[in-house]
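Worked example

This section walks through a single chain of length 382. The input is the sequence exactly as stored; nothing has been trimmed or padded.
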Amino acid sequence: MSRTLIITNDFPPRSGGIESFVHELARRRPEGSVVVYCSSPAGSDDAADPHFDLRQPFPVVRDAARVLLPSPRVAARARSIAALEDCDSVLYGAAAPLGLLAGGLRGRVRRQVALTHGHETGWSALPGASTALRRIGDTTDTVTYLGRYTRRLLSRALSPAAAVRMRRLAPGVDVERFRPGAGGGEIRARHGLGGRPVVVCVSRLVPRKGQDTLIRAWPRVLADVPDAALLVVGDGPYGPRLRSAAAGMESVVFTGPVPRAELPAHHDAGDVFAMPCRTRRGGLDVEGLGMVYLEASATGLPVVAGDSGGAPDAVLEGETGRVVDGSRPGPVARALIGLLRDPDRAAQMGARGREWVARTWSWEHTAERLDGLLGAPGRADA
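Given that input, the structure is written out below as tokens.
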């Protein structure tokens, strides 16, 4: 049987979008066909789930290092694992920087695929980092991209031959977990929201995600929808500043960190989903895609998305939601008011979003794409 070695820094029990993406890909591979080589989790993550590795349906080899780097030591261990486990393909959980190991594994394995996310687009804009990306593209068989935006930027850093070999591979959405009726009533009761119109934002609290713009827009929303509530779900380094900005607004509720198992219920607690992300640091801090928009759509919510990077790829403008300038509170407020004051239109957008996600963004579809990438080369996506 063909076996794949997944080399990654991003793997549970650490939490995050890339971690979930890589884990879902691994567990959807055929039984006995995957080995994972990854860094050690941070102490708090390990303590939260010390038996995570033992529960996986595939071997997990943990390096002692907290971060794997494309060093001679890591390259030697990767070659050793590939040989011992009889792996004939390699999947890099994130192209930058671990895809730089590909040159040393050529000849040992038949195929090498490097996943890209949002941060590689930042690499593509920096002289030294873009040179590294070019090398990764030239030594792997395929560099993946999330959507049109990331493909456009990444292709500029790759050689023409590597750019032609790029293929689209984006995370999927579990539409059985993210669905209308996933437990939103319990979340509303927990936070005393009752039957109020609720705007929900589920995301890590960092500047790029735009929760501060939501808070700045909120007084304008309340002027038109006085009983509305804003439910800010998640935690992160920007949390104290956001709580300070919302001081005195009783209609803004912060949940703090929530278990991953409760994320569908928190989406379901809203009437509208909003995350007005914006690009920062001259294009180095950018949204790669924005899976939370697709998860919200699967839950039947209309979405208000920022226009950063690939976020618009996760929205059908005017059909499943609105794309706005995430740096300005005015456009955000107008989009939210329009949806909250027209619940029939909002419900139609939510239903259209769920249909679109179920048809186009399923994990089964993603797993089939990966099958093709690890097998024979496929045709380029549009």
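What to look for: Residues 376-382 have pLDDT under 50 and may be disordered.
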